[in-house]
């Protein structure tokens, strides 16, 4: 039963309509809360949809924003600043997706609810909101992360009353959200079950595994046995537990048992659906989350209607409750929904904050400047230089490291290469590639590259990253210089001891290295759990460690030009 009452949030008086029941076309009802001004006038609505629970989102009325690192930062309060939305003359409508929170129905698998696409449910939800007496018939959407992905799914379904969307920090290619370069990432589990707490999905007994629902018991048992045979999985207690008791961790069970790209990820992939979207779309993302920036750019290039792209400054994680980017969002919606000519469409389509110089570069395309791909070569004594190594392997012996499993050590071994100090400001914007000639003494390992801007005093900031599971080294026909693509559709075991060329995709970035600064490249097969960057991410935001002892030899000699291919827009490195 819905109820109406008024609350005061700071200076804002709000009428709250609690526990509204929103009918879907198949008879299922979703639960929603609506926050509006107390004057009763119809207003445009901004809709937020996720499985994280509308009651959790209501904390935006009472909880001061928390930034990482903070013990009170909690990852799923992401629907936006309720009081600000009402102040700006909109109704904020927050709904629980099918099978979660107070909504009916079942939630099964990836962006799929009981066989009904979440885009279909979003269509019905938006059209119901538009018909309510407190809405003037115009609808936009709001929220980051899962809320952002829902905006694309909704827009691709083309509800007539959805006029525009503003997506901040969305996730798109779901495979690349859960497996970076084929290496499992734990943050989706943290989002599912709570990041350092319990506020993940709003659980019900109607959230179910797609694998358990759609596959035969024999097939599931075979997949579980295959995953448990992977030494990396077998060495990590939480994964072993989930594989044996999947009904307590249904979404994460699906991720573990789908380590290759396939139908489970392609189904209703927001990137694949982007060409169906012709309403105005503004995409925004902060730097430091390169895998998500990659998907953001893919979506941007595929959109059909008016569009803008805004890449903001480091650090990567926004406050919880989410409050950032509202100024830009309201300019966007005031123009497209309220019809206010505020000049937002007279500005360049692309805006990129460049770390280092701290300048904003604008253009009508990505990359915002012409680039020239240039190689920096890995050299002996930890050097990164513009010239390749002239000596053969006999004299330029390979660099190497042995990594013991983290079950027996807490030390992550890292190889490091540095440029000489830059003599002049040097800008790079775009994707890149790392070509590494490596011999591995096991049938698989991880290759993790992290790139830092190191100041003369030693202070450093992460610029971008690259990941590749060695058995996923195959490239596909989309690959070009500086822009490699891996299909991740099969795993090809490594021949132990054989020198292979591994090409890692360096995620998009924008940085200027100031005079005296160095570019630092670090290679490992695991990653430190805490450092200058990882402390800014949620708990559990790290990658599955390698569960076997592995020796790696990195060749960078006259026959093996291990190198970084980087997108320079200005003067080259020394």
UniProtKB/TrEMBL annotation:
<dbReference type="GO" id="GO:0008239">
    <property type="term" value="F:dipeptidyl-peptidase activity"/>
</dbReference>
<dbReference type="InterPro" id="IPR050585">
    <property type="entry name" value="Xaa-Pro_dipeptidyl-ppase/CocE"/>
</dbReference>
<dbReference type="InterPro" id="IPR029058">
    <property type="entry name" value="AB_hydrolase_fold"/>
</dbReference>
<dbReference type="Pfam" id="PF02129">
    <property type="entry name" value="Peptidase_S15"/>
</dbReference>
<protein>
    <submittedName>
        <fullName>CocE/NonD family hydrolase</fullName>
    </submittedName>
</protein>
<dbReference type="InterPro" id="IPR005674">
    <property type="entry name" value="CocE/Ser_esterase"/>
</dbReference>
<feature type="domain" description="Xaa-Pro dipeptidyl-peptidase C-terminal">
    <location>
        <begin position="330"/>
        <end position="565"/>
    </location>
</feature>
<keyword id="KW-0378">Hydrolase</keyword>
<dbReference type="InterPro" id="IPR013736">
    <property type="entry name" value="Xaa-Pro_dipept_C"/>
</dbReference>
<dbReference type="Pfam" id="PF08530">
    <property type="entry name" value="PepX_C"/>
</dbReference>
<dbReference type="InterPro" id="IPR000383">
    <property type="entry name" value="Xaa-Pro-like_dom"/>
</dbReference>
<dbReference type="InterPro" id="IPR008979">
    <property type="entry name" value="Galactose-bd-like_sf"/>
</dbReference>
